[in-house]
Amino acid sequence: MAVSEESFKSISPAEFFYKNKEIAGFSNPARALYQTVRELVENSLDATENHGILPIIKVSIRELEVVSEGAYYEVVVEDNGVGIPPRYVPQAFAQLLFSSKYILRQSRGMFGLGAKMAVLYAQITTGHPAEVVVAPIKSKHVCSFKLKIDIRENKPVILGFTTTSNISGKHGTVVRLVTLGDWTRSRQRVYEYLRRTAVIAPYAEIAFRDPEGNYLLFERSIDKLPPPAREALPHPHGIDIETMKSVLKSIAEKHVVEGLVESFQGIGRTTAIRILEEANIDLEKKAGELTDLEIETLVRVMKSYRDIKPPRANHLSYLGEEIIVAGLKKIFEPEFTTAITRRPSVYEGQAFIVEVGVAYGGKVPVTEKPLILRYANKIPLLYDEGIDVVYKVLDEKRGIDFKVYEIEFPAPLVILTHICSTKIPYRGVGKEAVADVPEIESEIESALREVLRKLRLYIQHKRRELEEIEKAVAIAKYIPEISESLYRVYKVDIRDTSTKLLELLNSRLKSFKISSLSSVVM
Q1: Which CATH number characterizes residue 281's domain?
Q2: CA separation for the pair 257, 285 (Å, rounded)
Q3: Cys staple from 186: which of 30, 68, 221, 429, with CB 3.0 to 4.6 Å?
Q4: Regarding beta strands 413-421 and 371-376, do their DSSP bridges make them parallel or antiparallel, or are they unpaired?
């Protein structure tokens, strides 16, 4: 019996994600509507803050037509960013795995999907093209595109293009999609995403109109922007064979010593010579002349070489204590808030920074467990909470005992965690949970304990203060009787005596208002 031969074929990235859209977060209409808003807003934030522009972002969702799976919604996101150069717009919005983010630099996105997945999902669920309007900064023209994705070829299809004069001098990008969604089921997630974005980006102004006509404005509360993310050279301890081949190809005509110095962090000429000698590679060779065996040996030596400085972190865009505190105060109006930005650490040759903030009391909701706000590269993480490294650190059985820090639940406590790096170890393409890398886990725990110690000092101070006030109030109740007794014995004026005794009592309460105790006595 003859055995039929198997047929093989390749598919494009667009076709792969068309068939597996759930792994990019577009698993159902409710999740897809949330994901669409998230991807477009994150693009807008990157297009503004990375270029020193205080963000102004407008988001609107409008219901167009009810269908059996949910409804068709028009989603429009507008920003005041630098504006994408028109020649890149078709690929930037309609070619998967085409991105400006395929360099070693911290960014909100990392897979080159983002807005393109939102465009793809809209296209396959409603058939409507994406509409993109761009006005690059200082440009004299505003360019409008209508785009679809050729799924089989993973290429943009331009259905329409117009250009008009930029009379007003505006700059930025407007994206309009018509997509399948379920507002009833995604409403809470969308609002929570925008609220948490306002916490992490208090320097942004975000306006939102929902399908029910409700309008929400998150006003800017601080004019300070985080330092911009910058491209970084790879670190020797974080490379692999394919990365090394790519680097050597780009410097093929240079001597390998010179190439190593120019292409990697932490390698000077002396270190490069020592590494090459240990790898038994001729110092006079050019980078493009190395054999596969020499490349493999070089990678092994570089990864194990201990006399290389750890990666620098001056290319990372961290928030800083002032911005974190401003964001927590803006949304929660707590009675106490503090934050810490840890010193840079390293995992697998990648620098990363952990930041943690807490908000306590005031208008913070009282809950049975702390309200956790997780962020990675300034992205709010709303799904997959249980598998995130933060929840492992906070696990009751092995993690932090809040009673040590004078906190007993239910309590009004918010904890914010932020990790920034050129390489966040997400647990999946959906980018909703960070893996429990030991180095990151240790930094989060140390940062949490540090801010909780500050909170404990505040709680202890507040408790002592309340105890002093209670004592003072108890003593103050006897002032009228004492004043009367002194009047009967010494004929001293009662009001005079009461006032002086009250002043003496209040001298012990620096933070307590005299009028409050006076009201108890008078």
Answers
A1: 1.10.8.50
A2: 9
A3: 30
A4: parallel
Buried (b) or exposed (e) across 188-207, using 16+ Cβ within 10 A? ebbeebbbbbbbbbbbbbbb
Closest to 179 measured CA to CA, from 105, 115, 101, 228:
115
The answer to whether residues 429 and 300 belong to one domain is no
**70 in helix, strand or coil?**
strand
* Domain boundaries, position 291: 236-304
Amino acid at 309: K
Over residues 317-351, the pLDDT tens digits come to: 899 999 999 999 999 999 999 999 999 888 877 88
Peptide bond into 29 cis (omega under 30): no
The answer to whether 419 touches 377, Cβ cutoff 8 Å, is yes
Residue 170 belongs to some domain of the structure? yes
- 517 falls within a domain: yes
Compute the chain's Rg from CA coordinates: 30
Contact 185, 193 (CB under 8 A): no
Sequence-distant (≥ 6) Cβ neighbours of residue 283 within 8 angstroms:
255, 256, 257, 273, 276, 277
Integer Cα distance of 452 and 509 in angstroms: 26
Note the helical H segments in 230-363.
241-250, 256-263, 269-278, 292-304, 321-332
Digit-coded pLDDT (tens) for 465-505: 776 666 767 667 767 777 777 777 777 777 777 777 677 76
d(CA 422, CA 108): 10
Contact by Cβ (8 Å): 75, 36: yes
Q: Residue 135's beta-bridge partner residues? A: 172
Strands 56-67 and 205-209 turn out to be: parallel
Give, in degrees to the nearest 5, the angle at Cα 98 between 193 and 299: 100
**465 belongs to a structural domain:** no
Judgement on whether residues 450 and 494 belong to the same structural domain of the protein? no
Number of domains in the chain: 4
Cβ atoms of residues 364 and 334 within 8 Å: yes
